[in-house]
Structure formats: structure tokens, C-alpha cells
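Researcher: Here's a chain I'd like modeled. Treat it as a single chain, no partners, no ligands.
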Amino acid sequence: MLGVAEARFGAVVARGVMAVTHDAADLVEGFWVVVVTFEGELTAVRMAEVDRAPRPAPVAPWAPLDRHWSGSLDRDAYIEGVEEIRRRIAAGTVYQVNLCRVLEHDLPEDASVGALGAHLAAGNPAPYAATVDLPEAGLEVACASPEAFLVRRGDRLTTRPIKGTARTPGGLLAKDHAENVMIVDLVRHDLAPVSRPGTVEVDHLCRVEEHPGLVHLVSDVSGRLREGVGWPEILRATFPPGSVSGAPKHTALLAIADLEPVARGPYCGAVGWVDADRDEAELAVGIRTFWSARTDDGRRVLRFGTGAGITWGSVAVQEWDETELKAARLVGIASGAAVASGRV
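Model: Modeled as a single isolated chain. C-alpha cells:
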């Protein structure tokens, strides 16, 4: 055992690092904490103890940040990125692209991302909240994700893509519904290679979910896994999540590489757990997510990503405003107070 550490996923708490791997083929026994970057780098940590009793996380001290955040794309650059995606849509190379920006703030050496995770859980409850405080494995992540990337129960695999965001249900547009249906079709095709023929189904389409400060359109798509399929095949077929890449996925990823100046890291990747002994897993899409990183010059920083799905019907300024809305509450919590203005 390398040491004692902790990861929290709602009522599931795992402690004690036993092993670390970057190979999904190793997820065949034991309980693993899993973080996959949007770029596809997997880090899985086998844990010594798992506690499934529902108990709240202790709220450790968190020193609020001073709100001096920098971003990978400013307003003008983001708006130009939206217009470039619309030009590509007009040319017929892509239908939808999720365009994101990464915010960054200096982080004191003694600041605990685990403490931030406890404050997020209290101030912004989320169905797939996670706090991964495993510095010896290189993982310090605080996540308030509302979106399930992959939920496994035995041979049943379910994904719940979110597309469509507004302050209230009345603010959801026809564009939001069209975008959701487009991504549902994409994830159906993602699940098909690892599912038994005829078992991929859309269980729910475009239901409205309310979350702190906003609402989302959410759909459920599931399939029954083929016999002998393991995590390498599952991740290869479905990653990165369709809701945070675009359609068709290949050309959407090319657009993201062209237009986003920094790597997304855990943001828009996957954060969660795999219990190989039970054939169970919950991997959230890594949105509403903070993580600790080191810059090239050695500074410790806290990063946070925010983005929006761009279609032909997008209005660039409105898409920028959506990224502000998604970030404002959580950045506000990290800075000591929730932000009511909807601006970072």
C-alpha cells in the first residue's frame, strides 16, 4: 500500500491507495477510482477500503480565492470560435461542436481540493458529485457534475447526455431540443459496437432536469453489453463523451483541436468509479469540475472548464453567456460566495 487517501462519490467513500494504473485492461477486480482526461489519458487507482454508508463529508477549511481568474479564450476569441464553427457547419464538415474555455487561478500549496469538494457538495449539490483527493496518484479533482457518462449495472450500460441549458424551463429553445436529439443519435452509435444487437434503446428523450441556478435537457440511452466486453472496449467505443465533443465526433474533435488553445484535462473527460467485483460503475462527464495542476514554471493552479454546444442556429454572444452561466455559481463558491449575476 502506498499510503492513505480518500475519494468521495455521494454515499460511496473509498480510502487507501493500493495500486495505480493507466491501462483500462487492469480493471478486472477490485474497486477503482477512475479519472480520464478529455484527451484520453486514464488514471485508475485501486482502493483498499470502500464504505457505502451515506454520511456527509467533513467540511474542512477552504480559503476563498480572490476571483483573479484568467481564461484560455476571452470573449472576442470565443465569439470568433463560434463563428468559425458555423462556417464549418455551412461547409458541411460538422453539425455540432462543443466549444470550451479553461479558467485558471493560482492555488496556494496548502490549499486542499478535498476541502473545495466538500464546499461544492454543500453549495451546489449534484447527482454525480465527486471529490478525488489522491495526490500520490496525481489526482486532485472536485466535481459537481450533473451528467452521467457511463453507468454500469451488470451487463446494462447507460449514458445520460445533457444538451440544452437555460435559467428556467421556459428559456429552453428549439435549438436545444434539436441539439439533444443529435447527440442522442451519436451516443446510440457509440454504444452499438459493445452492445448486443437490438438492445440499444432511448429510454428517455429530452426530459427537463432542474439544477442549482439552471435547467438542462437530459436523455437516457442504454444497451446490454456483449459477452466478453471489458473496459478497454467500452472506453474505446464511447470516449470522449459525445455531449462534450460534437457530431460527427471525428470532425468535431478536429475543430476542438483547432480552436481550443489548451488541453481540457479532466474537464469533459470522465470522473468516477469502477467496481469490477460487482460489475458496477458510475462515471460522470467531467463538467462543473475543478482540478489542481502544475504550470510549466512550477506554479500550482486551480483550473475549471466551461463550454457550450455550437450549432448552425447558435448566436455567438448567447453561447458566450451560456458559458458564463454554467461557471458563475461554482466559481463563486470557490471564491467565497455564490454569484447571482450569472457572470464569472
